[in-house]
Amino acid sequence: MTRIASLLYASLSYVIFLASFLYAIAWLGGFLVPKTIDSGPASPLAAAVIVNLLLLTAFALQHSVMARPGFKRWWTQFVSPPIERATFVLAASLLLFAICFGWRALPETVWQVQGPAATVVWALFATGWLIVLLSTFMISHFELFGLRQAWLHARGRVYTTPDYVERFFYRFVRHPIMLGFIIAFWSAPTMSVGHLLFAAVTTAYILVALQLEERDLLKEHGASYASYRERVPMLVPGLKWKSRGTPSPIRHSEG
Ligand SMILES: C[S@@+](CC[C@H](N)C(=O)[O-])C[C@H]1O[C@@H](n2cnc3c(N)ncnc32)[C@H](O)[C@@H]1O
């Protein structure tokens, strides 16, 4: 691909990501969009669960496989490195749309909160998504979504891998993006069976995916990431929850 074509491809992939991200917020919140998590024709319980689990598994597999360094090394024999991340983002966004449109509704209510409590839950829903969005800027938003790589290539600059960061939310937890997702996924004033299935499966997937991500981060950043892992909790601010993996050779006081 030429440099300009790569940049256009990455930009298009970013626009599709933005559309899928906004759609997913409205889909989960049950507002503004034609198809939401609880809308659509009724299906038998077993069929709905199987279809929904298959959709979530496709998304999880794409994310976990395509994000691994070994896969990237193999994959970049066929896809040019400056658009590798944009291709990951495009695949993830299309699968997110597939979840939104393919999801079989299971609208029976599991729990419901009303009045001021519902307002609090909506505020948590908004806070979760805001944490996700802000956290992407605290690491590197444009790197995460593949634009920085294509931009550097278009300008003829050498690509440099960004270092891991410990600023802002990353001072309090190591995975604020995933924390934001978990808050948003569980914050539903009316929790349906389908929404509960979605929240439970995605939370379980996040906990597994974080083990894989941290294993890669440890390999890439070595002792400095091991030290960060010892000092900063994984997901819950103030709660030191040790991840499994290589213990750090460095001793640090808890803080
Ligand atoms: C979808 S982001 C999720 C980041 C993090 N797990 C979170 O929940 O905030 C995944 C990318 O973030 C990168 N990453 C994770 N922690 C990071 C940190 N502290 N600083 C910079 N990049 C980080 C990983 O290398 C990976 O490419």
Automatic annotation (TrEMBL):
It is a multi-pass membrane protein. The keyword Membrane applies. Residues 54-207 form the NnrU domain. It comes from the Bacteria. GO terms for cellular component: membrane. Pfam families: NnrU. One of its GO terms (molecular function) is methyltransferase activity. GO terms for biological process: methylation. The keyword Manganese does not apply. Its EC number is 2.1.1.334. InterPro entries: MddA (IPR054700), NnrU_dom (IPR009915), Nurim-like (IPR033580). Catalyzes the methylation of methanethiol (MeSH) to yield dimethylsulphide (DMS). PANTHER family: NURIM (PTHR31040:SF1). This is methanethiol S-methyltransferase. It comes from Usitatibacter rugosus.
